[in-house]
Every structure is written in C-alpha cells, then in structure tokens.
Write a structure and sequence with these properties.
288 residues, three-stranded antiparallel beta sheet, 9 strands, 45% helix
Length: 288
Amino acid sequence: MKSSQFKKKQLHYLASLLCCAPGEIEYLCNNIQHYYGKWVEVKKDKVTGVIKKYPDGTPKERVIRPSYKKLKEIQKSIKINILAKIELPENIQGGVKKKSNITNAKKHQGNKYQFATDLQGFFPSITHKQIYNLFLSLGYSNYISHWLTKLTSIEFELPQGTPTSTAIANLVFFETDKRLIALSEEYDLTYTRFVDDLTFSSSKDFRFLTGQILEIVRAGGFSISYRKTKYQGNQTLTGINVFNNYIDAPDKIKLKAKEEQKMNQTTTNRPYTSYLQRIRGTNENLAK
C-alpha cells in the first residue's frame, strides 16, 4: 500500500474512532490556533485566598487555554474513546471518575507522618514530543499520533483547561508514578497524586526517603515547587485538613458555609455547605 493511501486509511480510521468527519480533523489540525482561548489567572493560596507572589513581589500566574467549539467536542471524544479507557492505579486521584481532592486526602488519614510536594508548571512542562510519544506507546501509528498530538496541544505544549489535558498529564507522568509506587510499596508508604499534588504518608518516620522521592520526580523531567514541599503531620493535603481520626475543611470553607446558612440560601445554592458536608460525610461513613 502506498504511503498516501495508508495515510488516508489511517485518517478515516481515526475519524470513525472519534465520531467525526476526516475533513474536520484535517481542518482543525491546520487551524488549531483559532479554536483556543487564552487568559492569565493569578494564583491564590487554596486555604487563605491570598495571592501568591515571587520573592520580588510579582504575583504568580498561570495561563489557561480552554478549547472551543468543534475542537472541544473532538477532545471530549478523544478522552472518552481513547484516554479514559486506560486503567490507572488507585494512587492517581486527579482527573479520574469518582475520585476527588477529598478521596485523595482521605487515604492519608491516620498516618502520623506526611510528606507533600507540588509539581511546578505541570501542564506547560509537558511537551508536544511527550504527547506524541504517549500516543505511539498506546499503539497508534505515526500519522494518528501526529494528528492526536495536534488536536491536544498548542504552541508545542500541553494546555491547561481542555477536556484532554489532565488525562494526558496523568499518562505522561505515569512512568514516574510507577517508580514512586514501587518505592512506596517497598517502605510501606501511602502514595497518592492529585494532578500535580504528590502526597506520601506513613505511621513510621520516613524523612530519610524524601530526598529519594524528589530525585525520582526530577529524573522524570519534572520540576518541584519547594515552597509547597512539607514534611509534617496533620497538614492540609489537596485543600483538606487531615487528622488522625477524621478529615475536615479548612477554616475558610467553614466560614463561607456559615455565611451561606445565615443568608438563608436554598439548599441548591449552598456550594460551600455542600462541599463541607461531602468532606464530613466521609467521617460519618467511616464511623458506620
């Protein structure tokens, strides 16, 4: 079969997989920049709400690149028909159905020693080459991997804010996850990752392993946010206060919930109250 015929056949196969027309894939790949938005979001502390700043006082920012219209539809199809079908271990809690920051924190309840760290610039640090190699590793041809990479990246990197980005980030980081899981199993640690938040805990002191953990992350080509790297007990993990016998929301959330109740808002319009109930509901389930 000639190369042009094979390419055409591959394009039709991908189109059938994504439930769209071959021409739509070609058009989007050639005009991808027209299907992304872009805005800058100032980073804030999850607990206090205070704007994060660099040592020189400059506010920290993240670039959000949401996809629009037909591209967003096709990305949803990529997620459903390709990415979501890949089973991930229980350690990965972010971007996984029925998992959340609450289920992530809950896994560390009762462990006296906790080590948390954060990946710096996680999404934009993932390059189009890594995305391309990911799709190749999933068994797709060079042509299909090229089109899928074009449909899920912008300006040679993984954008933050699209239907496919978290799933791709999980799979790109998975090789590093496997090394961290192996280390955790060897030393009886609990390890979870909620997108770019990595947490380790144990009933025994494991401070001597923290350097090795960080080296595994760096060896995978990722950067650490040392400001968010802490080794201590009963700390806030993925926005949840974790204690020996229960988990709870930080004070900021509890105050917001009280404000909602004072305003006599309807049950369907109490997001903070609902969130607080979901967190505390895990303690009730544990008691049962």
